[in-house]
User: What shape does this take?
Amino acid sequence: MIGNSKLSPTAKHILELSSVSKQMLEAASARDNRLLANIKESMPTLEALLDDVDSHWGYEDGMYRFYHYSYKVYRLQDETTAIVAALKSIAPTESGMCSLFTRVIADGTSKKWTQEHNADWHTHTRPIVEAYCHAVYFLRMICKYGKELDSAPTSLASGWAAVLELYGIR
Assistant: This one.
């Protein structure tokens, strides 16, 4: 093998970049595995939340209430908030969550029902349903990959990639 002193400046630069890339990949892998470890540690809580979602009074009733024009759809905000709290608790870093997700959640968890909302139902309640559906999606993906994965993959399935996006680490 040729010693580094005999390499051209371009070749030396490529080796340096390769070393930096390897370090970045190792750091990302460690972070992703920390997230997976947090998920696995919290699986009982996460699965209990998913069971609540899948119960009659979760997703099924909440979605019905939207289409029935029932003020009870506003209860989805409490479920959404509980799911988001669980998702935050497993974050692998202090960096927070995806700004798009936090915006959807903020838009759909600050509503108070008033009689006037009935006149423009869709405008007032769709953000509630949207926030709930996004929170449920991430809860499902986290539970799915928490069961399926033994270590964070380098080749990403869409659901796992979405989880990494949620935490701003993709």
